[in-house]
Amino acid sequence: MKPNEETKILVTSAGGKTGIPVTLGLVEKGYCVRALVRQEDARAKRLRDAGAEVRVVNLADSRDIRSAMADIDRAYFCAPTEANGLHYANVFAVEAQQAGIKHIVSLGQWLSHDSHPSLLTREIWLVEQLMNNIHGATHTNVNVGWFAANYFFVLETMAQLGMMPMPLGDGLNAPPSNEDIARVVVGALDRPDLHAGKKYRPTGPKNLSPEQIVDEISCALGRKVKYKPVSEKMLLKSLRAEGWPEVMQTQFIIYLEEYRRGVFGFGGPTNAVLEVSGQEPEDFATIARRYVQEDPVARITFRSKLRAIRKLCNAIATKPIHPINTEIQRGHALINDGLLCSDSQQWKDAYAQG
Ligand SMILES: NC(=O)c1ccc[n+]([C@@H]2O[C@H](COP(=O)([O-])OP(=O)(O)OC[C@H]3O[C@@H](n4cnc5c(N)ncnc54)[C@H](OP(=O)(O)O)[C@@H]3O)[C@@H](O)[C@H]2O)c1
After folding, report:
1. Residue 146 CB less than 6 A away from ligand 1
2. Local confidence band at 186 (pLDDT 50, 70, 90 cut-offs)
C-alpha cells in the first residue's frame, strides 16, 4: 500500500486550470483522489489515466455532491470562473458538513473583502467565511491574485499579430503558474496539521511590469510582441466578440482597474509557494515557454494570421456592454459605496505583508 492510499481527497472543478494539476499532484503523492468534472472529455481521460477516480457532476446538484462526498476525508473547493460560485459553495459546505470532511482547501482571491464593488469578489469573501465555519472541518484559504494564465487569453493575437492588447496600465504583478497554485493547494491538503487555519497567497518570484511580461512572451514565441494598453471600451468589445459570459465581462473590467492601480503587485512577491510546497516558484520565462508550447494557437501560419485579423475586425465592429447597466439588468446583488482594494485602508493594512 502507498503511504497516503488510505486518505481520500475530493477535487472539485478537476478539469479546470488548477483542478488538473491539483488532481495529478495528489495522485503522485499516493492519495486516493475523486476528481469531479463537468463532462467526459480528454481532460477527464487524462485524470483517469493518471489514477484518479473521475466523476461527472453538476456542482449545483446536491445529490451529485452528496454522493461524491461519501468516504471523503479532505477536499479542494474551487468555484468555476463564472456565475453561481456562491451557490456551488453552499451546496458543497452543506454536504461536506454532513459527510464529516476533516480538512478543506479553498481557492479564494487576493482582492477578497466584504465591501468590494465586484459581486464575484464579495461572493468569494463569503465563500471563505463559509468554509471557515464548517463544523468539524479545518480550512486553508489560498487567496491568489492575477494568474499568469490570464495573459494568455490573448495568445492568438500576440502570436499572430505581435501585440498584447490589455488595459494593464503600468501595474505590477508577480504572476503564479497554475501549477504553482496547485502545488500550494496540494501542500495544504497533504499537511492539514501545518496549514489548517492559514491563508496563503501564491505568487511568482518577481513583480513584473506589463513590458517585462510581454518581453518574456516575445522570447517564448520567438517574435517581437508589443504591449498595447487598449481602452476599457476596446477590451469590452473583444470580450463580447469572444463570447465571454456577460457576468465575467462586468467583473473583469473591475479587476483591470485594480491591476492598473497596482493592487496585484501590492505586498508581493510572497514565499508561499516555497513555504507550502518546498519548491521555488517558477519564473515567468519558464511559465511563458510552457504555455506557448502547449497551445496550438501560438503556431504562426498564414491561415492563423488571417483568422486573427478577422477576429480583430469583428471585435472592433462589436458593440460593448455597459457594465453597470448589465449588472442592474441581470439583477446582480449590488452594494452602494463599494471600495476597491486600492481605496480601502482596511484591506491595505491587512495585506501590506502579502
Ligand atoms: N484567473 C485568475 O486570475 C483568478 C485570480 C484569483 C482567483 N481566481 C479564482 O479561481 C477560481 C477558478 O479556478 P480555475 O481557474 O482553476 O477554474 P476553471 O479553469 O474556471 O475551471 C472550472 C471548472 O469547473 C467546471 N464547471 C463549471 N461549472 C460546473 C458545474 N456546474 N458542475 C461541475 N463542474 C463545473 C468547468 O468545466 P468545463 O471546463 O467542462 O466547462 C471547469 O473545468 C475562481 O473561483 C476564481 O475566482 C482566479
Report:
1. yes
2. very high
Amino acid at 128: E
Q: Which residue has the cell 463580447?
A: 240
- Report the C-alpha gap between 336 and 354 in whole angstroms: 28
The pLDDT tens digits of the residues spanning 35-50 come to: 999 999 999 999 999 9
Ligand 1 centroid vs 79 CA: distance in angstroms? 6
Between CA 351 and CA 354 the distance in angstroms is 5
Note the pLDDT of residue 354.
74
Q: How far is the CA of 143 from the centre of ligand 1 (A)?
A: 14
Residue 3: is its pLDDT beyond 90? no
Say if CB 240 and CB 249 are below 8 A apart: yes
Query: What is the predicted pLDDT for the residue at 2?
Result: 66
In testing the pocket of ligand 1, which one of 10, 78, 88, 125 has its CB within 8 Å of the most ligand atoms? 78
Whether 185 lines ligand 1, by a CB cut-off of 6 Å, is no
As a residue count, the chain comes to 354
- The pTM (predicted TM-score) of the whole model is 0.97
Q: Is the CB of 201 under 6 A from ligand 1?
A: no
Structure confidence at residue 160 as a pLDDT band (50, 70, 90):
very high
164 and 152 in contact (C-beta within 8 Å)? no
Cell output for 215 = 518581453
